[in-house]
């Protein structure tokens, strides 16, 4: 469903609400000119915010840098989630960095794995689609 | 990290098409529950500048993005009320260490809404006029959405978001 506005809003977004291990989870993904923003929340706020980006030149294998810029810095699974997502974004053909916010009720590996799969399944396919649209 | 497990899971994924909201102001006010993320997008065309606003209302926090002519993400700030003396603390989260365009907006947003605020803003530095104009337009919208409710004496209070 598209609005009848004469000009498109320059930031595209998609929001999804689903259940992860019994917790209602809101996922919002936004595409800006120079970044992607993914908000995942179960607690009504953005929680821990991470920044993930691709490094390395075109001719070499890409490497990725992930860091917590706000919130919990002692949860390695959050970093692992960011690492998986930035790699998927990179494989989709984009070099845009990712700002990822994770406001979760638990940081267990099972939750993070299920969440990562859910984000990729529900949202990154959308990302890949809009990237292909932008490139074509 | 058990990346092999995730790789296996990824290969089994089916690409599903869901409803998307490309280019749409996806305002959910009046739809769904109050616990859902409520997203509002709008643009204000002024004489020589175009402001884009994106407001994502979560239960306990509001995220705001302000774009000045472009859709670049800009600098990211977090602001919240600190106890016990209820002052407002603002911190740059991404960028914004050499200039603080947007930090004042974040601070005043907390004062008006009483909620934790995350602001992303790409207004150029040393542009106080642009900052004031954007803030005014933003606050007008927040008031119309009910996120800021005016007091009877004319001063805003924290909105009833629960």
TrEMBL record, chain A:
Signal peptide: none annotated. InterPro entries: Proteasome_assmbl_chp_3, Psm_Assembly_Chaperone. One of its GO terms (biological process) is proteasome assembly. Pfam families: PAC3. This is Proteasome assembly chaperone 3. It comes from Zingiber officinale.
TrEMBL record, chain B:
It comes from the Eukaryota. It holds the Pfam family PAC4. InterPro entries: PAC4. One of its GO terms (biological process) is proteasome assembly. This is Proteasome assembly chaperone 4. It comes from Zingiber officinale (Ginger).
């Amino acid at each position: 469903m598209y609005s009848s506005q004469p000009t498109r809003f320059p930031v595209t977004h998609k929001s999804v609400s689903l259940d992860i291990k019994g917790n209602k989870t809101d996922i919002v993904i936004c595409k800006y000119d120079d970044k992607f923003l993914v908000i995942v929340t179960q607690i009504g706020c953005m929680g821990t915010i991470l920044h993930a980006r691709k490094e390395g030149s075109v001719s070499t294998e890409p490497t990725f840098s992930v860091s917590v810029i706000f919130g919990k810095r002692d949860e390695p699974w959050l970093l692992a989630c960011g690492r998986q997502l930035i790699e998927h974004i990179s494989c989709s053909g984009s070099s845009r960095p990712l700002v990822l916010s994770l406001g979760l009720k638990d940081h267990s590996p099972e939750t993070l794995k299920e969440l990562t799969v859910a984000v990729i399944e529900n949202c990154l396919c959308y990302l890949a689609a809009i990237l292909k649209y932008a490139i074509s | 990290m058990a990346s092999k497990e995730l790789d296996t899971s990824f290969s089994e994924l089916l690409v599903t098409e869901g409803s998307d909201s490309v280019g749409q102001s996806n305002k959910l006010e009046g739809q769904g529950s109050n616990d859902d993320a409520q997203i509002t997008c709008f643009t204000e065309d002024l004489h020589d500048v175009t402001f884009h606003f994106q407001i994502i209302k979560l239960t306990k926090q509001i995220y705001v993005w302000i774009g000045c002519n472009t859709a670049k993400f800009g600098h990211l700030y977090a602001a919240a009320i600190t106890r016990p003396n209820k002052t407002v603390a603002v911190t740059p989260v991404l960028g914004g260490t050499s200039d603080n365009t947007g930090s004042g907006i974040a601070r005043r947003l907390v004062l008006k809404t009483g909620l934790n605020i995350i602001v992303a803003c790409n207004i150029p530095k040393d542009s106080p006029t642009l900052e004031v104009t954007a803030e005014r337009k933003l606050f007008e919208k927040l008031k119309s959405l009910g996120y800021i409710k005016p007091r009877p004496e004319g001063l805003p209070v924290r909105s009833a978001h629960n």
